[in-house]
Design goal:
The protein is about 80% helix and about 0% strand. The chain has about 300 residues and is mainly α. It is found in: Cell membrane.
Length: about 300
Amino acid sequence: MKRHWAFPLLVEEKKLEGANGIVQAVQALSAVAAPILGGILYGIMGVQTVIVFSCCSFFISAVMEIFIKIPFIKREQTEHIIPTIAKDMKEGFAYVIKQKFILKVGVIAVLLNLILSPYFLVGAPIILRVTMQSSDTLYGVGMGLINFATILGALSIGYFAKKMRLKKLYYWILAAALMMIPMVLSLMPFMQGLGYYPAFIVFMLGAIPIAASMTIISIYIITKVQKVTPNELLGKVMAIMMSVAQCVAPLGQILYGMIFEIWSAQVFIPTFVVSALTLLLTVLTKRLLKNEEEPA
């Protein structure tokens, strides 16, 4: 995510969605594959080999980045580094506040990270492991499918971006709110009484498309911001956008942890609340973007 500012300088504008999607997919894949590969290497060769392997990976990455040519205009530095950083941050925040479109989509991104993302990071593991009492295998299958949906969503953004419109973005959030309904039903006592597999399957039927759609929405928003931001402000604006959006995620995780602890015997209640909040976010998104035109 930290290199999103550079993509408009390296990729044609019409290919931005695909580029962002590929990077997001690689990051999601590495988040899944890295612990598995690390565990295998640690079990077979020990911790020293893992450290050497990591050092070599970082070195190869550094060498590869040397050959990335990013257009750059060096600014004349007239002040000390600290005042320069403060000035850059001030300019970035001023631009974001001034540009109503960026401010609007920033609010949407923050609320998504506060409402939906922590649910899957905190709530889904609790539901699968504690509420449904999944075996190690089925827990891995469930979380693996959710992660795979994230990767699939990132890889498919190039296709969906051609059909998506800012004024209709709320449809995607509405779909996520509606897909929460089978998840709520899967956690209710009557569904739990039918046995493990019916509840597990119904829950995953809701969770998988939501995970994919969240990734698609996120990449779509990032790409639109990249297209309307001048190149000289890209680094500042993207840093602010990503920092604010990511900073609210831990708050959501803490909140969901407390909520699921309180409602541990009735987890369908917090899931229903998430669905309702997502529905409210749908209404807010429609109102915020109803007059927005597609960036040229």
